[in-house]
Amino acid sequence: MKVLFLSDLHIVDDRDPLYLAFLSVLRGPFESGDRVVLAGDIFDLFVGNKEIFKKRYHEFLSALRSLSDQGVQVDYIEGNHDFQLSDVYALIPRVSIHDDAVDFTVDEKRFYVSHGDLANAKDYSYLALRSFYRSAPSRWMIKRVPDFFLEQVGKISGRLSKIKNRQKGNATQALRLPYHAAAEKLFDRGYDYVVMGHCHDLDGFESQRAHRKHQYVNVGLPRFHKSYLIWKSGDPVISRTPLPEF
User: Fold this and answer.
1) Are 109 and 83 within 8 A, CB to CB?
2) Alpha helix (H) ranges present in 27-109?
3) DSSP 43
4) I need a surface site. Which of 112, 153, 155, 210 has the fewest CB within 10 A?
């Protein structure tokens, strides 16, 4: 059995070369019982059950249906660029939408995966914005806003992501501290592996506690780091593996 972890792809549109590489990963090979965890910000913008996104990314939805048919479980954790998604995937078996995190056990190993945007409890401005995104008024508004308006929001979001990409590699210890602290607390709760994203930091560490090893790993920024995460039964650690060339 294997588990794949991907996040923070920030795919701009269906012509994005990274989108094609992502589809290649989703198209296998897989076996029944495998798992794919999409830990948020897969797209630069995919909000609500809107036709504009479902049409644009129809190949992605088709790939998820194919995974489901193969007996693969897909967990989609909403991020800050892709949220209010439950209705989009409601008719695809074995696809579960999670607001914050997902945990599961494989071969007696416990996994905890989150987008990572709640790791820093002192980021008050972001947490307030996140709360609004998931509020009833926001849901009401997104259902009614015209698709062309969301199209413009997507273009702006794409430009902002390019700016973020140019700032990659500037992670500081101060940035990492809340993620490390959150991982340590999850280790205390008995999780063997903790995976996060959001901060675009290619980071990770291992910890030894009472004859048990633990690992924290951040997905990083796949567009720049050109990798994602994979774990297979019997592996001692989650490993980085190269994305298909794009």
Assistant:
1) no
2) 51-56, 58-69
3) B
4) 210
